[in-house]
Extensin-like C-terminal domain-containing protein
Amino acid sequence: MLVLLLVSGVLYLGWDRFRAFEAEHPEYFPWTPLSLGDPVGAFTDDKLAALADDAPHCRSLLAKARTGDRPAPPRRLSEPACGYEDGIEIGSAEGTRLAYGRLVTSCPVAAALALWERETLQPAAQKHFGERVVAIDHFGSFSCRRLYGRDEGPFSEHATADAVDIAGFRMESGATIPIVRDWPGDGREARFLREVRDGACDLFRTVLSPDYNEAHADHFHFDMAAGRPAGWSMCR
Ligand SMILES: [Zn+2]
């Protein structure tokens, strides 16, 4: 598949023009390095997920994007399935980030959120409301718990800070858009929320919204589940 893409691109454009096109649209190609300044393409989610194996590279991408994020101290618990080594304190310094209050996530989640803010959230806010989002309300990231809060079974991605639960948005005008209130119906708030949910599906491995089940009626769950094959994603 990749070889076919390369060969047909080179045959069609010629080598030099192919390389120029590749440099102009790195998001179209699986082999180009990720930059958080690029638009979102078909391979962006795989490149973000791969950052889990390269924490220094992930931190350098955030630094280059001037998000104002800072490394968080490692967190280790007596439960070995819980904790993280390479957490990121989101927007703790002056930077391009929206306001999140206090939030620590894994580095790939922080990187995916940065792209989502710029490429999905702000364009959708301009389109539907003609103004910017200034802050994100959330229910946090790290939580040492199993899926659905059960006593047995696999641990949630929250147990390693590889997930974040988004509860709603605050606009420049002071208006708020809580998911629990504004998801139902088909008003402009509801259309905005569906659009930003769908945009997250191009970046995160798993995206769950109120469409999924009652447990998600008041938030979006975004996660970067580790160990999934490239191309795997779930968007409900
Ligand atoms: Zn969650």
